[in-house]
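REQUEST ID: PR-0412
SUBMITTED BY: lab tech R.K.
PRIORITY: routine
TASK: structure prediction, single protein chain
INPUT:
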Amino acid sequence: MTQHIRTDADVAQGAAWLAQAEPRFAAALAQTGPLPLRLSPDGFGALFNKIVSQQVSVASARAIWGRVVAAGLDTPDAVRRASQEDLKSVGLSRPKMKYARALADAAIDYDRLRDASDAQVIEILTAVSGIGVWTAQVYAMFNLGRADVFAPGDLALQESARMLFDLPQRPTPKQLEAMALHWSPWRAVAARLLFTYYRIAKDREGIT
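STATUS: complete
OUTPUT:
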């Protein structure tokens, strides 16, 4: 049965398990304190927002998404009806216009996706142009609340693992994926911990 993260208590349960399984996680948790739930609504808008956020700064992504929502272009029907000029006017690049239309045309059953296995979620989402494995994994973790999904291709997770585990260099996605096998069935909580630890470590170094 697929395990989900729904509440802060679920995150705390996973964090306690990780601290017992790995001393370095226990040390990290002593610095981070309680981990954030980081759970957002799922659906078309959540995925479209992630497409908007690809390869731009956080500030730019927020600004563009704000214009998308203000223009009422955050539903599949609205995107299908929109002209190229409509999509361009809110700040979407030509590739992202294409990806937005692909997502709108994919007709994903988001209700059924909630009950799909982790592997099925990744397979269904990555079949859509513009959604890669990283985007699908992040959606599964933070929009569907999957407890045992991880994103080894994420640079912040790689760098955080390098610092926490005192590695000579940043692990490759394949190396980090292998490390994360030991954090199952709470890999998504490990991701929350590594993300939080990354921010603390970088703040300590004075790096943004």
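NOTES: The CA atoms of residues 140 and 146 lie 6 Å apart.
REVIEWED BY: pending
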